[in-house]
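[Backbone geometry]
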Amino acid sequence: MWREGYVSGGDTRFFVRALGHGDDLAVLLHGWPEDGSSWRRVAPLLVDAGYRVACPDLKGFGATDTPHRGYDAETLADEISQLIRNLHVRRAVLVGHDWGGAVALATAFRHPGRVQALAVASSPFRQLDLRRSWHIPLWNLPVAPEVAFRVAARPLVAAAVRYSAVVTEAFTDDVLDAYAAAVARDPAAWLSYYRTLSRRAIAAWAMRRVRGRTGLLPDPPAPHRLRVPTAVLWGEHDPVTPFHLAPRVAHDLDAALVPIPGVGHFVHEEDPLAVARAVIDLAGRGQGSPVPTGAERPGD
């Protein structure tokens, strides 16, 4: 049975959906335009493998607090670290998709002692393809994105899902309604991810291109290496963050690459079994035994 409630992480109150019991915790972080319920088919599979699972709405989304500042990587990482502590464990398996992957990465870099293992899905690190992720500069515009999502969240979310997903059965009308509500509540809040983290990423990407073509800029410091077991999960037919980015991300993170065939951007909703298996394998659980195929929706 799913449990719901608020758990603090620093100055932010996170709305958390939880399933299962015990000291082995997996924290699952969603991306745009979802909320924590997007893990509704992955979480039961992890519970059957022995985990307690927590699925928070990210800051700025859904029922979690929606401040308009504090979306830098350091603050986001500190909040997730404190959330893990307030879920009464020393460390957790951390799984993130899209923006949730960026937050999970920041947490693992800044607070490795809180992270047992890390899985990131469809979440670029130091890599961008703005020909495909054209929405990033668009959503950095002032005012217009806020107005658009205030007045037309439902059709915009539905269009984004149709464009980004290959397997669409999970995206029922009820699911799309919930996601539209999650992003319509306060668009200025979640747009802060694009206006803070993505601006850093675009600036770093542009500097790498200039450096590679001209040699005029000094080499950047080598990226810090993660100190936790890490896997990069990626849909082979992802139209938003295309698969050609995945090997570069895995290389930069010194991580295992787990391609997921036949799916698009929303890997955890399009193939929850593959995602659950990858997480369990990464954490060293369930070796030699099949992952159960049952799934339970929040509220069932």
